[in-house]
Amino acid sequence: METTINLTVEVFKTDVEDLAGAAMLVGLLQKLITNSRINFDLEDCDKILRIEGLDISTQLVTGIFEDHGYLCQLLE
């Protein structure tokens, strides 16, 4: 019997402008959302954050950003 794992993908609009800020936030998020793939597209006009994983709490993500002075909004 095969077990399938359904990954969730969440995409957020952010105001992160630089690689240092993006790297810091990715590091924090990876500690809290284990077994996930997290990346930024800072060249996109919406400074996209993409998270692929299981049990992604959008409130946790937006809270981390707010705590560090950044804006983050789930794109639907």
Query: What value does the Rg take, in angstroms?
Result: 13 Å
How are helices and strands ordered from N to C? EHEEHE
Strand proportion, as a percent range, falls in 25-35%
> Major beta sheet, specifics?
4 strands, antiparallel
Strands in their spatial order, largest beta sheet: 2-3-1-4
Shape: globular
CATH class reads Alpha Beta
Gross CATH architecture:
2-Layer Sandwich
What is the percent of helical residues?
Answer: 25-40%
- Let me know the average pLDDT: 93
DSSP E strands, number: 4
- Report how far the terminal alpha carbons are from each other: 34 Å
Number of helices: 2
CATH domain topology:
Alpha-Beta Plaits
Unreliable residue runs: none
Q: Which structural class matches the secondary elements? A: alpha+beta
- Tally of distinct domains: 1
Commentary on this structure:
The structure is a single chain. With 76 residues, the protein is an alpha+beta fold. It has one domain (8-74): Alpha-Beta Plaits (2-Layer Sandwich), CATH 3.30.70.100. 32% of the residues lie in helices and 28% in strands. It is built from 2 helices and 4 strands; from the N terminus they run E-H-E-E-H-E. Strands 2-3-1-4 form a 4-stranded antiparallel β-sheet, with helices on one face. Strand 2 and strand 3 (48-53) form a beta hairpin. The protein is globular and about 45 Å long.
Helix/strand layout:
Layout: E1 8-14, H1 19-32, E2 37-41, E3 48-53, H2 58-67, E4 72-74
Antiparallel strand pairs: 1-3, 1-4, 2-3
Notable characteristics:
single chain; 76 residues; alpha+beta; Alpha-Beta Plaits; four-stranded antiparallel beta sheet
